[in-house]
Amino acid sequence: MTRSSGTSGRLAAAARWFLSKFLGAVFVLWAVTTLIFFGIRMIPGDPAEAILGGPGSQASAAALAQVRADYGLDQPLVAQYFGQLARLVQGDLGNSYSLRLPVASLLGEQLPATLTLAVLSLILAWVVALGLATWSTLAGRGASIVSSGLEIVGAAVPHFWLASVLILLFSINLGWLPPVNTGSAEGLILPVVTLALPLAGFLGQVMRESMLNATTSPFALSARARSETEGGVLFRHSLRHAAIPGIALSGWAFGSLISGAVVVETIFARPGLGRTLLSAVTLRDIPLVTGVALVSALAYVLVMALSDVAERVADPRVRAS
Amino acid sequence: MSTHFKSSSARFSTAVGAVSVAALLLAGCSSAEPQDGQSGQTPVSGGELVYASGDAEPTCLDPHVGGNYPQALVSTQYLEPLVSLNSDGEIIPWLATSWEEAEDGLSWTITVRDDVKFTDGTPLNAEAVKANIEHLKDPETASSTGFLALAKVKSTEIVSEDTIRLNLSQPDSALLESLSQPWLAIESPAALERPKEENCEAPVGTGPFIVDEWVKQNSITLVRNEDYNSPPADAAHEGPAYLESITWRFIPDSASRYAALQSGEVDVIDNAQPDTIASAEKNEDIEHLDAPRPGASNRIELNSSKAPFNDPLVREAFIHSANVDAGISSLFFDAAERSHSALSSVEELGYADPELFTYDPEEANRLLDEAGWDKRDSKGYRVKDGQQLSLEFPVSTNQSIPAEVSLFEQIQATAKEVGFKIDLNLLDLSSWYGALAENNYDLVSAPYTKVGPDVLRILYHSDGIVPAPSGYFANLSQVDNAELDKLLTQASQETDPDQRAALYEDAQKLILEGYYVLPLYDQQNHFLYRSSVEGLRALPTVSTPTFYDVWLNR
């Protein structure tokens, strides 16, 4: 009796949680669409002119009129906005102005490259951050100072600078790795490292802090009293503590990776959402900008939900509350 | 005092030319230079070349649509125009074998080759040319560059299988120059009938390469046209190209592009920046091709439609206040040469007058005093009737490279010394168009590439002040001078070469002596390539490189 009511209570809680996440996601997606739609029009300039090729080519009146009619740019702004919302609700992302292709298929082509980059960078950042945290916990104060220094530097360097330094070192001086995308796995190394190091700096700072706290906390003391080894304390207890803030930050981290992809994909000449976004903004390609933003927002919402779940699994305190 | 490019002081320059040719012959007599390549080896067929462009990826590979430089760069490899130019600026045959202007200048008869086929098998003939002209003039194509170039073409008439007549509304002395541009290249009429999207993906021409695949946001693959038989009259060989294929990539970041060239990941890069050119000079694996674009020089236009530049004295003062030479030599590492002309140095009819553009702050101060701007505020800027002498300078970061932006900052600094306040606004392209459309500028720099001096009519005829529906207009200095209009219109109709040259010279004098423009340098167009790339040259039309004669010496 108590058991079944407990299960249905938990189910109801889960359903409530799911519903709130879902509504939150819908709100985020609507807000993104609206902000982009009006934001891009606040910037002066005529998308029709940009569609016709920009520098050096002067659009004739007839060509501009044709383009405006083709892309519905001659309609009132409000009509364009609701038209776009209606199409989006039906799952139609429209056609890119600049690439003359359906936005959905463009995103489908570009998404895997960016996801690969972001996921690999997130994994590498985790490995580096946990490594530094573990090292400074096990190896004492000196290691702690060194890793803390590395983390601050890592977190502070901008992507474009790091990318240039890595290219100079590993491509031009040592000749080990290609400076631009080659389609091979080798070509992924420098972009992944560029994205991962600053992130590892951020994650490392919080992870090291909570790992150090955990090793000096009462439960670690009692574990030691149960004659656990230092390594056992670390891997069975402290690691989990270190991971919790890392998990909580990973949703945010994923978002920052997507924005970092704009810089990294441009510098390493990789295909992907970031590079697509940059050229789409320059060309005032509203459907494509909206599409990239929606996909990124959706990915962000999903990863946030996942990190929420993971946090619940890793941390009994969150579950209890 | 004035100097001409090549034309009027021809006797002198010919003498200089003869001496330098003799010197070259003496220097080169130990290794006689063969026609096929710089290395003296027999060209080898085969291999794949990787080209990396710093330009934005085109949105359509058919240069009839829109019509900008990135399209011209890639389409030069697979599409060919009716005529070309040789390095002396003379029209030479390409797909067309002969052409003739009617007595009254109101029609041109053009005969095309009868043995050329498009790569889809469609034959090249008068019908094909007609279909292309109609395609360019069709509003649905949304052509801008090609459309403008054909403005005077009223109708076409098929005379025979291979001969077409173009009927004009007015005589057009620039017609052949216009037709030599890659934006007016001839495509297969059968391919043009496909939907626009399809034709944009893979246009079909007669060129030495064929568009095989275009992976958006990544690369374009071009493969050799095995049946190629239509090189321009000045090509170095006949038959198919040496290269088997070209991979056309887009690497927007200048440093990565150069790094990719250094590491051998790519063979040729464009948009080489002054710092990388300087670094490449020291690298023996890398060669430099400097191919200034034709048409207008890169120049700062002074907006004469409103205060303070509606006063010629203030325009003259600004020009003498700008220390351009020092900026160019420090920022461009000698990769760019100062221009004193409204036209590119590759334009035969360019007229230059260095005396007008001297850096002379004393004279600038005197002129400003004379113009009534004789007081200064606490910051040292000049004032008149409570108004500060301030200038809006919107800069398009898509068009001005970083070194150019730095040059503008130096001009800002030297102009400040005589009391000009310049507000430099770095804008993206669309915002920049917006600022111009609102007449919210006093200074502006805008490139314009076109073959021949008729570009002057586009840039300085008062018709060019009338904005297009987008608000954009080409006459950015807003010169409105009836005498100049008349000269430019006459020149555009005058087919006698000497008369035409004289008219353009008078027109350029009016523009330069009116202090409407501050010329800086030619429109920069630098390519760097691995020394294993042999036989690379830029077409003398709009300076796009052609890979037809290129072979890999690996």
In percent, how much strand structure appears in the residues of chain B?
Answer: 15-25%
Name the structural class of chain B.
alpha+beta
Which stretches of chain B of 5+ consecutive residues score pLDDT under 50? 1-37
CA gyration radius of chain A, whole angstroms = 24 Å
Poorly predicted sequence stretches spanning 5 or more consecutive residues of chain A: none
Distance between the termini of chain B: 51 Å
Arithmetic mean of pLDDT of chain A: 81
Number of helices of chain A: 13
Structural class of chain A: mainly alpha
Can you describe what's shown?
Chain A has helices spanning 2-42, 47-51, 61-71, 77-89, 103-138, 141-156, 159-173, 186-215, 218-225, 230-267, 273-282, 286-314, 316-320. With 321 residues, chain A is mainly α. In chain A, helix 6 (141-156) crosses helix 8 (186-215), helix 7 crosses helix 8 and helix 10 runs antiparallel to helix 12. The longest helix of chain A is centred in the N-terminal third of the chain and has 41 residues, at 2-42. Chain B is an alpha+beta fold and 554 residues long. Helices cover 29% and strands 21% of the residues of chain B. Chains A and B meet through helix 2, helix 3, helix 5, helix 7 and helix 11 of A and helix 4, helix 7, helix 8 and helix 14 of B.
Per-chain topology:
The complex is a heterodimer of chains A (about 325) and B (about 550).
Chain A: H1 2-42, H2 47-51, H3 61-71, H4 77-89, H5 103-138, H6 141-156, H7 159-173, H8 186-215, H9 218-225, H10 230-267, H11 273-282, H12 286-314, H13 316-320
Helix pairs in contact in A: 1-12, 5-6, 5-8, 5-10, 6-8, 7-8, 7-10, 8-10, 9-10, 10-11, 10-12, 11-12
Chain B: E1 3-4, H1 10-28, E2 48-53, H2 69-75, E3 83-85, E4 91-93, E5 96-101, E6 107-112, H3 126-137, H4 145-149, E7 153-160, E8 163-168, H5 175-179, H6 189-192, H7 196-201, E9 209-215, E10 219-224, E11 245-250, H8 254-262, E12 268-269, H9 274-281, E13 286-290, E14 298-302, H10 312-321, H11 324-331, E15 351-352, H12 361-370, E16 375-376, E17 382-384, E18 387-388, E19 390-396, H13 402-417, E20 421-427, H14 429-437, E21 443-445, H15 455-460, H16 482-493, H17 497-513, E22 517-521, E23 526-530, E24 533-534, E25 537-538, E26 545-546, E27 551-552
Parallel strand pairs in B: 2-11, 2-12, 19-20
Antiparallel strand pairs in B: 1-15, 3-4, 5-6, 6-8, 7-8, 9-10, 10-11, 12-23, 13-23, 14-21, 14-22, 16-17, 17-18, 24-27, 25-26
Helix pairs in contact in B: 10-12, 11-13, 16-17
